[in-house]
Write a structure and sequence with these properties.
mainly alpha; elongated; about 70% helix
C-alpha cells in the first residue's frame, strides 16, 4: 500500500528546511528559501507546515535522529566495556574512520538555539535532547565506573554536554583549530578520572550532602 503523500512530502520539506538553514542561517528561515531548496511551491510547504515554528521543531527532530542513527551503529559494534569510549570519541569526531562521522550540523544547531530563546516548543525540544544525552552519558559512566553514585554520574553527564556543546561552538562556529578536538576529548577523560580518584580515595571521598542540588 503506498504511503500517504504527506508522509513523503513532510520529510522532504524538513530536509529542505535543514539544508536552507545550513546555507542561509537565520533569521527564521523563509518559506521561499525552503521551497527553492525542496524544488516545490511555497504554497505546498505552507499546506503541510502552516506554522513555521512547527517546521523548526521538526528540524530539531531531524537533527536528533541523525545522532541516534550514528550512535546506534556504533553501540551495536561496541562491547560493553568500550561503549563509553565510543560515545565520547563520536562526539569529538574520532570515529570517522569507522563510518561514524559526527554530523556537520553546528550551524543548524546555532539557528535552533537562537530560536529557542523566543519559542518555547523549540526550547523544550532542545532541552529534552540535551537532557537525554546527559542521562545517556551518565548511564555509560556508571556502567564503566560502578563505584560512582548516580549524582556523580549525572554531574559528569552535564559537564560533558556543556564541554561538548561549547567546544563545537568554538571550533565549528568560530573557527578555532580542530586540533582542539583532542584537547577537549582528553579533558573529559581527566574529568571522569578526577571523580573516580575522589571516590576511590577515602581521604578525598565526598561527604554526605556534597552533591545536593544535582539534577534528579
Amino acid at each position: 500500500m503506498p504511503k500517504p503523500i504527506s508522509e513523503v512530502r513532510k520529510p522532504e520539506i524538513v530536509e529542505a528546511a535543514y539544508n536552507a538553514i545550513l546555507k542561509n542561517g537565520l533569521p527564521l528561515i523563509s518559506y521561499d528559501l525552503i521551497a527553492q531548496e525542496a524544488d516545490m511551491s511555497r504554497q505546498l510547504i505552507r499546506h503541510y507546515f502552516p506554522d513555521p515554528v512547527e517546521l523548526m521543531v521538526a528540524v530539531c527532530d531531524r537533527l536528533a535522529a541523525a545522532y541516534r542513527d550514528c550512535l546506534m551503529k556504533g553501540i551495536l559494534n561496541a562491547q560493553s566495556p568500550t561503549r563509553l569510549k565510543t560515545f565520547l570519541d563520536f562526539y569529538f569526531d574520532f570515529l570517522s574512520d569507522r563510518d561514524l562521522e559526527k554530523p556537520r550540523d553546528d550551524s543548524a544547531y546555532d539557528a535552533m538555539m537562537a530560536l529557542a530563546s523566543t519559542h518555547p516548543s523549540i526550547r523544550k525540544n532542545l532541552h529534552d535532547q540535551y537532557n537525554l544525552l546527559q542521562y545517556t552519558i551518565a548511564h555509560e559512566v556508571q556502567v564503566s565506573h560502578p563505584q560512582l553514585n548516580q549524582k556523580a554520574c549525572l554531574e559528569i553527564g552535564y559537564l560533558f554536554v556543556s564541554l561538548m556543546y561549547g567546544h563545537w561552538k568554538m571550533v565549528a562556529t568560530l573557527g578555532f583549530s580542530p586540533a582542539h578536538n583532542a584537547v577537549t576529548r582528553a579533558a573529559v577523560d581527566r574529568l571522569i578520572d578526577s571523580y573516580v580518584e575522589r571516590w576511590d580515595d577515602p581521604d578525598l571521598a565526598p561527604v554526605d550532602g556534597m552533591n545536593e542540588g544535582a539534577d534528579e
